[in-house]
Every structure is written in C-alpha cells, then in structure tokens.
Design a protein that fits this description.
It is built from two helices and no strands. By secondary structure, it is an all-alpha fold. The protein has a domain of about 45 residues. Helix 1 packs antiparallel against helix 2.
C-alpha cells in the first residue's frame, strides 16, 4: 500500500507539497477576501482542490 497525503480523518498530511500549497491557498483566499473585490469563492475552492488532488496523486506515484 502506498503512502497517502490524506489521513484517515480526511486531512492533508503535513510537510507535503499538497499541504504547502493548501496553506498558501488559504492565505491567498484571506488576502482576496480582504481586498473587497468580487471573486468567486466556489471556483477558487474547486481549482484549489483540483491542484491538491493532483499533487497527492503525484506523490503517491513517487513523482513529487
């Protein structure tokens, strides 16, 4: 069985590319919210999850 970035609780394992990207996304999300500009939270979250999923698959395949 290969290691996974997702723990049994559904959280991303620490110190992985996926966790670093998720932390950056959360900070960027807060920054965008504080700007007061219109921005689509749903699209942002969906795009973020797509990248996190890809990073996790790459790590599980030994490529990240």
């Amino acid at each position: 069985m290969s290691d996974s970035d997702i723990t049994d609780s559904g959280e991303i394992s620490p110190n992985t590319p996926a966790s670093e990207f998720a932390a950056w996304c959360e900070a960027e999300f807060e920054r965008r919210c504080n700007l007061g500009d219109d921005f689509d939270e749903g699209h942002y979250r969906k795009a973020m999850q797509l990248v996190i999923d890809r990073l996790q698959r790459l790590k599980n395949e030994g490529r990240a």
